[in-house]
Design a protein that fits this description.
Keywords: Signal. The protein is an all-alpha fold and 215 residues long. The chain is built from 10 helices and no strands. The chain has 2 domains: 100 residues, no CATH class; 112 residues, no CATH class. The radius of gyration is 19 Å and the shape is globular.
Length: 215
């Protein structure tokens, strides 16, 4: 019995050490997510994250952040075919991401991927992927209504939706206000609790809303 207990303790210790190693490798890469605004910048981060992902193939964390970097690259990439390849790369990570204990963030990543699909070709994709986007945000809210990503992503989607369909700056502001309120509750940047990303995006859209409303 004593040997069994020691074996279990050792296994947990090794697992904890591995988690710490992963976090240490991811932290410097992810620290500047909210100040990366170019395709080249995201490509550099994606390449780094790919290496961490290959090193720790069973962990959800590198897969999550690699998927996020691929989505961000897709927004800057001008060519539709390459956009789709990047979003495919993000979607391929879902098998690993679905082992994340924060199930609301699994839905956030699915919504983020659906939003990237729409962003690549809005006219032809909004109907199919808009439904997937909304369903996953609703699921995330049911799990954790304090997740700021719910309101950030809904705000971005609303901002770019034509006014005749309920979009526009004025309607989007409500979601960004809510996102800011939720971000204000977050005082950490823990790699295994990825609620912090997107804060600067929220601030950026407040500026864009002001521009639109004061035209």
């Amino acid at each position: 019995m004593k040997q069994v207990i020691l074996t279990v303790v050792l296994a947990f210790t090794l697992q904890a050490n591995a988690q710490d190693d992963i976090k240490k490798e991811l932290e410097p890469i992810c620290a500047t997510f909210d100040s990366t605004y170019t395709l080249e910048g995201w490509k550099a981060k994606s390449d780094q994250l790919a290496l961490v992902k290959e090193k720790y193939p069973e962990s959800w964390m590198p897969a999550y952040y690699y998927a996020y970097s691929c989505v961000q690259m897709s927004y800057f990439e001008p060519t539709l075919a390459i956009k789709d390849v990047l979003v495919n790369n993000a979607e391929d990570q879902l098998v690993k991401i679905e082992t994340c204990p924060l199930t609301d963030e699994i839905h956030i990543m699915k919504a983020l991927i659906a939003n990237a699909r729409i962003g690549a070709d809005p006219e032809n994709r909004w109907q199919k992927y808009g439904k997937i986007f909304d369903e996953n945000l609703k699921a995330a809210k049911t799990i954790n209504e304090n997740n700021p990503h719910i309101y950030l992503l809904k705000g971005i989607s609303t901002f770019y939706t034509p006014k005749m369909f309920g979009g526009g700056a004025k309607n989007a502001q409500t979601y960004f206000d809510k996102a800011k309120t939720k971000y204000d509750l977050i005082t950490f940047t823990d790699i295994d609790k990825p609620y912090w990303w997107g804060r600067s995006t929220c601030t950026y859209f407040f500026g864009e809303i002001d521009k639109e409303l004061n035209k």
